């Protein structure tokens, strides 16, 4: 099996993202031999996997996590979200830049992060811990997702003690019931459900599969998986973001930066209005792109200059 010696970086990915080059399948197969049976030469003469095949996608993720992040054991239950690793890594790297900019250009040595909707895959904490040494609390409403994430943590010594998991008992809440009285988080992150209904989620999946294969699928197969809470919620992304902003104000002095991915650009004006009404002092919008796909993350803080200085002194030793 061959692969190009030098390839151009993928457009839009963060400069520190380990996935800027085309996948090195020789190295990935060395890290995860089971990947070999899913790798074939595509029409352009380049080694690849069938991204419309959920089993191939999961095996590719397993190989990427093993090769780049030292994760020896990783699995998810059938039908659960199997996220694209390069985009998840990008979010982590941009948040690291945000923290460094808040700390005189230097990344804090100790960082505590809340991952809202950690999912069965536990990918954000894996990457943040492996690359930056961050500690995480991961919340989720789905007990099976939490059991899967805990199994991943327990199976990888580097994650044990660095990632803690909490159940969100109410589908109406985001932070309430998860952030405790004595918690302090330097960052929160979230990849909210995109869709407002199961029908809308299925239509989105059909469009994605059509783009991947060039033909409309007779049957919808979720190549990246996804359960109800992972793909859709009442009110869709816009409704989830409104709840997140409203609740974040109640924890204004327990978190330095709140953040979320925002998939739909049309949801930005409403988000900005909600943040202004909630009293956010700082709002940052960071563009992100992976190939043809464009997205962005929005981060906000309720700390003014004096509050941020106090946070640096108390949390980061400056």
UniProtKB/TrEMBL annotation:
UniProt enzyme class: transferase
Alphabetically ordered keywords of this record: Cytoplasm, Methyltransferase, rRNA processing, S-adenosyl-L-methionine, Transferase
InterPro entries for this protein: METTL16/RlmF, rRNA_lsu_MeTfrase_F, SAM-dependent_MTases_sf
Example of a GO cellular component annotation carried by this entry: cytoplasm
Domain of life: Bacteria
TM region positions: none
Catalytic activity: adenosine(1618) in 23S rRNA + S-adenosyl-L-methionine = N(6)-methyladenosine(1618) in 23S rRNA + S-adenosyl-L-homocysteine + H(+)
Region forming the signal peptide: none
PANTHER family: RNA N6-ADENOSINE-METHYLTRANSFERASE METTL16 (PTHR13393:SF0), SAM-DEPENDENT METHYLTRANSFERASE (PTHR13393)
NCBIfam families: PRK11727.1
Protein role: Specifically methylates the adenine in position 1618 of 23S rRNA.
Protein name from the UniProt record: Ribosomal RNA large subunit methyltransferase F
Species, as recorded: Pseudogulbenkiania subflava DSM 22618
Gene coding for it: rlmF
């Amino acid at each position: 099996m061959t692969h190009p010696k030098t390839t151009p970086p993928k457009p839009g990915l963060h400069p520190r993202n380990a996935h800027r080059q085309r996948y090195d399948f020789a190295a990935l197969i060395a890290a995860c031999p089971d990947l070999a049976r899913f790798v074939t030469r595509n029409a352009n003469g380049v080694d690849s996997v069938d991204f419309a095949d959920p089993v191939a996608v999961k095996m590719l993720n397993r190989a990427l996590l093993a090769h780049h992040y030292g994760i020896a054991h990783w699995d998810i239950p059938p039908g659960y979200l199997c996220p694209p690793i390069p985009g998840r890594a990008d979010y982590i790297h941009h948040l690291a830049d945000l923290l460094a900019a808040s700390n005189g250009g230097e990344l804090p040595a100790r960082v505590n992060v809340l991952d809202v909707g950690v999912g069965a895959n536990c990918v954000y904490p894996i990457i943040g811990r492996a690359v930056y040494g961050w500690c995480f609390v991961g919340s989720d409403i789905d007990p099976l997702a939490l059991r899967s994430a805990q199994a991943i943590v327990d199976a990888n010594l580097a994650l044990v003690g660095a990632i803690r998991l909490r159940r969100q008992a109410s589908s109406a809440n985001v932070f309430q019931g998860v952030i405790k009285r004595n918690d302090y988080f330097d960052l929160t992150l979230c990849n909210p459900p995109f869709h407002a209904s199961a029908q809308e989620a299925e239509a989105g999946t059909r469009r994605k599969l059509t783009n991947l294969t060039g033909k409309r699928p007779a049957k919808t197969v979720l190549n990246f998986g996804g359960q109800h809470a992972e793909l859709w919620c009442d009110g869709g992304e816009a409704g989830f973001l409104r709840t997140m902003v409203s609740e974040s104000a109640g924890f204004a002095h327990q978190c330095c930066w709140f953040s979320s991915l925002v998939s739909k650009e049309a949801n930005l004006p409403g988000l900005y209005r909600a943040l202004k009404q909630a009293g956010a002092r700082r709002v940052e919008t960071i563009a992100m792109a992976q190939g043809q796909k464009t997205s962005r993350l929005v981060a906000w803080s309720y700390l003014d200059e004096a509050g941020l200085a106090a946070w640096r002194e108390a949390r980061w030793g400056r």
